[in-house]
Amino acid sequence: MVCLGGKMAKTTVTAFGRLVRIWRMEKGFMLKDMADALQVTSSYMSALETGKKRISDEIIEQVCAYLELEGPSKQDLIDAAAVSQPSISIDLNGLEERDRMLGVAFARRIGSLSQEKREEMLKLLGED
User: Fold this and answer.
1) Across the 128 residues of the chain, what is the mean pLDDT of every consecutive 10-residue run?
2) Residue 84: how many other CB atoms lie within 10 Å
């Protein structure tokens, strides 16, 4: 929670932000320490953790190096960053027209799919 004008405002933390905060705190690092080491501002680091800034591959690598993450922990952070992005783009270059239609239809309707349909799609794609 953040205090704004005497009222408490809830700050949403992304999956990426949760993992970074957990590992940072486990190692005894403050957000400012990490920001300084990565040569970014504390507000930028906070914006990454709360999903207000896009998480670049470069920053993921820097965070992994700073927190000394390897193997499964590094992959967990990469996966968390992927689901924490405010938007994604799909490269349709080279795809057949029907495949392009599938990508566009999915993008248009993802927000209106029922939880059941989403689960079915994740299973179908092997992401469950």
Assistant:
1) 50 91 95 96 94 94 96 96 87 93 90 92 85
2) 21
CA pair distance 3, 26, nearest whole angstrom = 25
| Contact assessment for residue 63 and residue 84, using Cβ atoms and an 8 Å cutoff | no
Please give the structure tokens belonging to residue 65: 């190096």
Instruction: Tell me if residue 3 falls in helix, strand or coil.
Output: strand
Among 9, 50, 10, 46, which residue's Cα sits nearest to residue 30?
Answer: 46
Residue 4 is predicted with a pLDDT of 47
- What domains appear along the chain, each with residue ranges and CATH number? 2-84 (1.10.260.40), 89-128 (no CATH)
13 class by beta-carbon count within 10 Å (0-12 exposed, 13-18 middle, 19+ buried): middle
pTM confidence score: 0.72
pLDDT of residue 6: 52
